[in-house]
Amino acid sequence: MERREKVGEEIEVVGARYYSKDFEWENLRHEVENSPSLRHHCQPHIVISSSSSSSGEDAEAWKSFHNRHSRGRFFKERRYLLKEFPELLDAHGWYTILEVGCGNGSSVLPILRAKDTIVVYACDCSMVALERAKEAVDAAEISQKLRFHPFYCDFSIDGFPSWIFCNACREKFHVEAQNNLSDVVANEEANAMRIAGTRDVQCCIGGVDFVTLIFTLSSVPFRSMPFVIANCYSVLKPGSLLLFRDYGLYDMTMLRFLPTQRVGNREYKRADGTRSYFFSLDTVRDLFLNAGFIELELEYCCINLLNHHNGKNMRRVWVHGKFQRPI
């Protein structure tokens, strides 16, 4: 028997495989699009004013959010990630992960606990969030805390720093991959030292084996998403994976927004200035394939959650995806 527990915006299945289909998304779509009270979510967005917020303003809104909510109920470890993305456990030897938009470390901690040979580089546009993530890792019983490297990056505006994957090493890695991947690293110990932060003797860390975009892409303006995805592609080693999870079209959160909070098609802004976009599978597919990725998995995750406070059923929709940079 599966037991589902609410964990922040997610649920975790205890003692069973991760559950992802309580209802069919097409049935929900039909219900929403035929409901007079919800139909405004489906109609084309009409721009009333030509003024729109800049990416910098969006980043400032998220910085303020993290200042207000750096602790408490907003910190829930996303342990389900290891069930949804078993590739994080299946890789052999030392390997690196770039967590884009790490927040206070809710995704970082379970990944670091999973294996002693994982090194995580984590970025965010909020220094407060990065400090909380580092505090969480320091407080946890995790071996080799040098395996965690937080750094500031407003990824909706700026590209990732060159010390992750410089142009010269991208070319070099491509040639080595074509010749013999086993000769890239002399031995596992040397590799561990290389990716554990010894950048003073290295021009870069040689790219990453995984990029995770977990409830991050929806927080940037839709117009900035191709830029973010292209930069994620650029720091992945050939053949490596990007793991994606975010809000899906007609999720309960979307249906709660008022018509006045729409700032684009499927794009909404809260009173505090933070925004959310709600993805269809077609939109996600177009974004990632246009950046050069290969689609491995892409589906809606449709979950019924029971609100124990009011007894109401909450229908949550998330998009789950795995994409590969081709060799």
UniProtKB/TrEMBL annotation:
Biological process, per Gene Ontology: methylation
Report the EC number(s), separated by commas if there are several: 2.1.1.-
What's an example of a GO molecular-function annotation for this chain?
Answer: S-adenosylmethionine-dependent methyltransferase activity
Note one Pfam family from the annotation. Methyltransf_23
Return the InterPro entries for the record.
METTL2/6/8-like, SAM-dependent_MTases_sf
Q: Which UniProt keywords apply?
A: Methyltransferase, Transferase
Against SUPFAM superfamilies, the record matches this protein to: S-adenosyl-L-methionine-dependent methyltransferases
The keyword Iron is assigned to this record: no
PANTHER family given in the database record: METHYLTRANSFERASE-RELATED, TRNA N(3)-METHYLCYTIDINE METHYLTRANSFERASE
Functional description taken from the UniProt entry: S-adenosyl-L-methionine-dependent methyltransferase.
Q: Which family does it belong to?
A: Belongs to the methyltransferase superfamily. METL family.
**By what name is this protein known?**
tRNA N(3)-methylcytidine methyltransferase
Q: Which organism is it from?
A: Amborella trichopoda
Its ancestry begins with: Eukaryota, Viridiplantae, Streptophyta, Embryophyta, Tracheophyta
